[in-house]
Design goal:
22-stranded antiparallel β-barrel; globular; single chain; mainly beta; 4 helices
Length: 842
Amino acid sequence: MPFINAPIPSDAQTFVPRYVSFIVVNPATQQPLTTAVVTLQRGQNRKDAIVLTPSLMENSHATPVFDLCTWHTVSSVPKHQQAAIIHLLLNHSLCLQLSPQRSSSSQSPPTADIFVVVKASLLQRRQVEQSTTITHNQIQQFGGGAGATIQSITKAQAGVANDSAGQEHIRGEHAEISYVVDGVPLPEILSGQQSAVVVPSTIQTLQLLTGSYPPEFGMQTAGILNITTLPGARKPVGEYDLQAGSYSTTNGDLNFEGPIGKRGDYVFDFAATRTLNAQDPQQPDDQTAHNAGSSVNEFAKLRFRPSSKDTLILTLNQSPDTYQINNRTGLPDSFAQAGEGFGFLGLRNRDGSIPPINIVNPNGLGAAPIVLPSQQAEHMDIDQREVNEYSTLSWQRQLNRTDSLLFAVTFLHAGANLTNHNPPVDVLNLPIDNSIEYNPTAIRNVHHSQIYVAVTLPRKNHEIKFGILNDTQIGNESYQFIPASQLALDDLAVVDPALAPPGAPKQATDAQGHPLFDSSGKPVYVTDVYGNPVYVPTSNTVPTLNVHRSGFYRAAYIQDTWKVSSRFTFNYGFRFDWFRQGQNLGQPIVDTNSLCPRLNFAYNPDRLTSIRWSFNRLFNIPPLAQGSIVGAPIQPETLNQYDISVQRLIGRGQTVKLAYYIKDIRNQVDTGLLIPGSQIGLFSSVNFQIGGVHGVEFSYDLTPPNGIGLDGFVNYTYSIASPAGFDNTGAPAPFFNDHDQRNTVGAGFGYTWKNQANVSFVFTYGSGLASSVVPPSPFRTPNSELDLHLSTGSRFLKGLGALNLDIENVFDSRSVINFQSGFSGTRFQQGRRILLSLSSKF
């Protein structure tokens, strides 16, 4: 039978023969779905609607053949007729019209157009993954408009704990997140980087996977963002969104989609943002102190179909951004017992004193009160420029009616340059203390070249898939930290002597001036107020540490999704991971591989309930070209993850889910500040010998019929993340990970009217990260945020566009996110931001 091989855009009107069958394609994986529902409707007569589901007996997962004239399914097609197999993207709709030359029949063909609506089943009975799917409409409703980020979309999902600097910790891990874009996994970017990898305006669907991973998924597995970008259109269309508001914020997005001849299509998207409150500030009141930032995103997707069996896709993306490292201006008097943000690391108060809780050596250098101006008053000026850019060329080949091949080549560059225009310093005549810690210059770049191949072979009740991945990387980094005070120099020499200027720690002497030694014969040094040896430089020249890394990540997998029965699905297989990295720091070469079994089950005791459970052996690679420059090199993280969940359909469009997970981790990879406690924008990685995470998630989801009415979700997560042993520098691991958070709540509800006007809100609550404790209190600092979105719909002003109002942080909460954390420094919530926008299609 002939078939329309390519998924049809949502605005298409297509002529088809009398007999049709449908295959619903998951846009995230480009593979057929067995859990979709196809609804056929003639004109506006909803009572005449027919629902088709994929046949479990068909290897292609096609629906039964449907006769558009008799409006019934048929078991066979007459010899003189042919049926069209139409591939449809999940969550898309299109208009079908009977071809005149195919409508000859004793029965009159329908005169009205046939509207076909494709919807995913809420209870995905055969899906084994623990995941949530977010559609393009939900992104627009709950994502925040033109200035939205991936974090603004996922921040309220189950298992996600929000942190500063755009970090989101999924199921108790730091930032081990992979991106899969249009079926192709992207290589790793720099740790701590904030520039965008994918901009929400280019996303058609986003599937957030958090557990029960089939072997095809790997690399980073705290969470996997399985993204399908916009599919293109049969006729030229465009859309713009212009937004402006508080903190001199301006955001804009311009999108174009359309055909390239008869066999191709294009998607172009251009987005830009600018604001005076770019990052989480270091104080709750003055949030614009040297805190401006801007970003640009340029996206292009070109698709060409040279034949009915082949599809070529070229994707280009570039996301540069520039932002200022925000300055401290001082904290309110309520922080006097913890440090009001003056001096080194903000540990000193406005009156020059150091709170006793911050003092290690009461008689050490710097213990006496020293009144200092703030970073802002001292004109600290540090800027960071980042870029993520990648290009992917993929070839999708339909080998036969059922089998398919995906071949993709990806090139990715991630860069981050940190520069400063701080006041100059004389290293040989440093002040004891200064609110400016360092004058840093750091250049970091990593280049990836990746090849990915995947083959899918459906066979009766089995779907076999295997693939290989080869990612080659080269990274170059340079670091120079000019200390602005003696206390900063002492700390730098302890972190890494290679970063300090020539010199040596000052040895203590007795009353006669003789050097002192301890009982084991080691020198005794003079220490400062924070317990660091006082370092005496002998040169004004501060060295630049140059780092070159090279290596690869390779993987191969094979899996089978076996439909054991109508109620039981079993996904099983193996993934082989191999990571190798060498560097010029004299550290040993990291060369590690692992064979990881995956066992994932889905069982449906009845048509309303789905039970999933799994065992996964996982292998998470460290940052390939930006790991530790201190201590032992970063090792890959390995873990055993156990998942179990029960999901039930409790009403029309309503599901509830209860999930429990356990992670037993070795060589846990965490990310923190290169110089602990400093806030100069440089992050690095660390290994903990042992990590353990377990948690419970409850979620409720509501989906309205036809996208009209009440839409929403609410979830609650209880989690504990606790490392053990030592880190890669030999220091003992903390009792809890800095990002550990006990109780997390996320919720979002919205209502859409028939004219597409809508109102929605998103609420997040966290009981406090482990890094949010403000001494002397032992308790964590909770935080919450409510965001509101109002839209008139596109029919406003006689169809000229939609007027939108977004209010971020409605109640202007400015709670502590982190406080004097070695991993994050001190950060507060950003204040209320009111944004007005105009959006329209053309």
